[in-house]
Description:
Layout: H1 11-21, E1 22-32, E2 41-54, H2 58-68, E3 72-75, E4 79-84, H3 87-100, H4 105-124, H5 145-158, H6 172-182
Antiparallel strand pairs: 1-2, 2-4, 3-4
Helix pairs in contact: 3-4, 4-5, 5-6
Amino acid sequence: MENQKNSKLSGDYIAGFVDGEGCFDLQFRRDIRHERLGKPVYYSWKVQFVINIRRDDDKLLKKIQNALNCGQIHFTQSEVRYSVQNLENLKNIIIPFFNKYPLSGKKKMDFGLWIEAIYIIYRNKRKNMNIKKGIRGFISTNWNKKDFQRLIEIQKLMQQFKSKRPRGFKWISMAELIAQTLK
């Protein structure tokens, strides 16, 4: 009998586990760079795949990380969190994995919306950096207005599949505010 410590998890097991414990997350964030002159404010869409469980089950998340070959594991006092935030990994590893090993119920519907969001964000991602002497950083992203509006709709639709907890001010209200300025 194979040692349980070294055993690999099947794709169907991982999909079932994610049905219960996983999250496909889409957020619109407002971040302030306090260390910079003028404290500039930046807005961005963030997507991630997350599993949060009790800290004493960390070996299970390590097996999932090894099976998917991407993502990071973070520990808090009582929980362990596996997350994949890299857009390329989300698009090229996570989406194909769950297309091959389908989810069920509400998680399947949530995943379908999340896939659409991934492709919209990927299509609109920054492609260039400033390379002029004395100017550093990324060139601003000029979002397609229809894509931006659709992300707002997707984020609202995804809320029905999430646990009901208070949301911070960094969430969709800021996206709606910016969307109004794009009209």
